[in-house]
Prior knowledge:
By secondary structure, the chain is of the alpha+beta class. Helices cover 23% and strands 39% of the residues.
Amino acid sequence: MTEELFLEDSYAKEFEARIVKLEGREVTLDRTAFYPGGGGQPADKGSLGIGPVGADMVDARREGGNIVHVLDRAIPGTVRDLRGTLDWERRFAHMRYHTALHVLSGVIWRNFEAKVTGGQMRADRARMDFSFPGEWTADVVGEIESLTNEALARERPVRVYELEREEALANPDLIRTQVNLVPERVKRVRIVEIEGLDTQTDGGTHVANTREVGEMGITGHKSKGRQNKRIEFVLR
Length: 236
Ligand SMILES: [Zn+2]
């Protein structure tokens, strides 16, 4: 099983690891700080190398309990250890957008009792879909934008911790995020809590405080059916 360093420390930009398996351009490591993608957050990019040997890491994915890193070229089979370096600008942008999505989700739940149905982040934009029962006007969207920016400006700490599955199931804040859908074999669930606003089970990487997100601006909104609404936004 690959040790997932990003779960403990989302700010790890570099790490050293041992090669567990090397097959063509694909390498499995005993530990990694590269996020393999999931929950709407894209896989990281960066580089892996040692001494004169090096390659760009263009993609990553989970495979069983391991994380497989896809390189842009093969590296010699004699290499045993590698140093990984993240494309930090890109990853930090994903962290800001991911935390912004949770703040937005907390706001529309608190103020409109609307539940999130999906979300996707990029390094320069994000979108969120939710089930919104009311009228979907420019005024409502503008209100969501100012409420979200107010919440971000409160400099709320973002806490990451684990709960026993039973404890998580009993937590009323977690019910709307469908913690009951977490597979039963998972005994401990990872929680991301934006203090006083939003608590979710989540495997992604986040900033430590909403002040690092900055300000969001809604760039588009769509109604995709009576209940299903979409918001697109950028961070400044
Ligand atoms: Zn999330």
